[in-house]
């Protein structure tokens, strides 16, 4: 008889009903030769504390979270990057409602997740199949992400955390001259970053409002 392997998984999402839904699906389903132990977190900071004190094999995370004052994470993307940097043995599965191609490509570039699904295409069967594949032979990507991979040559830019902090601070009303207080850059470097961001989002000759609208529509803020 094959030995049962225990897999500890942390699910991270700010919607409790979604977490409960995933847990119900996984608790009712059987994965061959696997005992799945599930833990949950509704905030990125809480998830990071749990990861530091736990022994997780898989972290399944959302991307969009309300930003709390004093949080070290602007989004689930930042958490995913941090996990990959400091706990490379942990497999990361991303589930998101985001559908903007540029945003999804950015997540692929920055996290390089072991599993990647859009919530709109997730079924119980696909979720189980994703987890099985991530355990045995990652990566596993949903159909939309797989199609996106074939067109990646058309996407030449990627936003890093500094870019996302600049966009976030601008969305709060922070003036450009004050942005160096929030990022480790000179004012000249901040202005160059803003220029690059406007080029990326196709609002080269427009103001901050146009940039923020594009960034918001793409799911960055």
Describe this structure in words.
The chain is built from nine helices and six strands. By secondary structure, it is α/β, with parallel strands linked by helices. Strands 2-1-3-4-5-6 form a six-stranded parallel beta sheet, sandwiched between helices. It has helices at residues 16-28, 44-53, 76-86, 101-111, 124-136, 143-150, 161-171, 187-200, 208-217; strands at residues 5-12, 34-41, 58-61, 91-96, 115-118, 140-141. The chain starts with a strand and ends with a helix. The mean pLDDT is 88.
Distance between the termini: 51 Å
Shape: elongated
Q: Give the H and E element order.
A: EHEHEHEHEHEHHHH
Largest sheet: 6 strands, parallel
Number of DSSP strand runs: 6
Report the mean per-residue pLDDT as an integer: 88
- The largest sheet has its strands arranged as 2-1-3-4-5-6
The fraction of residues assigned to DSSP E strands is 5-15%
Question: How many DSSP H or I helices?
Answer: 9
Q: In angstroms, what is the radius of gyration?
A: 19 Å
How much helical structure, as a percent, in the residues? 40-55%
Helix/strand class: alpha/beta
Low-confidence stretches: none
Descriptive labels:
elongated; alpha/beta; 6-stranded parallel β-sheet; single chain; 9 helices; 221 residues
Reconstruct the topology from this structure.
Layout: E1 5-12, H1 16-28, E2 34-41, H2 44-53, E3 58-61, H3 76-86, E4 91-96, H4 101-111, E5 115-118, H5 124-136, E6 140-141, H6 143-150, H7 161-171, H8 187-200, H9 208-217
Quick structural summary:
By secondary structure, the chain is of the alpha/beta class. It has helices spanning 16-28, 44-53, 76-86, 101-111, 124-136, 143-150, 161-171, 187-200, 208-217; strands spanning 5-12, 34-41, 58-61, 91-96, 115-118, 140-141.
């Amino acid at each position: 008889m094959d030995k049962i392997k225990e897999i500890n998984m942390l699910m991270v999402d700010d919607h409790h009903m979604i977490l409960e839904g995933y847990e119900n699906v996984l608790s009712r389903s059987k994965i061959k030769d696997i005992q799945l132990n599930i833990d949950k977190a509704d905030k990125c900071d809480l998830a990071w504390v749990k990861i530091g004190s736990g022994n997780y094999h898989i972290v399944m995370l959302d991307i969009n979270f309300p930003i709390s004052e004093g949080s070290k994470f602007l989004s689930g993307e930042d958490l995913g990057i941090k996990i990959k940097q400091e706990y490379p043995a942990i497999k990361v599965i991303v589930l998101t409602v985001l559908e903007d191609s540029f945003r999804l490509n950015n997540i692929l570039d920055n996290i390089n997740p072991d599993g990647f699904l859009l919530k709109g295409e997730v079924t119980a069967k696909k979720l189980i199949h994703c987890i099985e594949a991530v355990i045995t032979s990652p990566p596993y990507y949903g159909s939309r992400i797989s199609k996106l991979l074939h067109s990646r040559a058309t996407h030449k830019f990627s936003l890093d955390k500094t870019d996302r902090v600049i966009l976030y601070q601008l969305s709060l009303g922070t003036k450009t001259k004050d942005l160096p207080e929030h990022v480790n850059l000179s004012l000249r470097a901040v202005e160059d970053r803003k220029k690059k961001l406007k080029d990326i989002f196709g609002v080269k000759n427009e103001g901050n409002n146009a940039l923020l609208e594009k960034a918001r529509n793409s799911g960055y803020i």
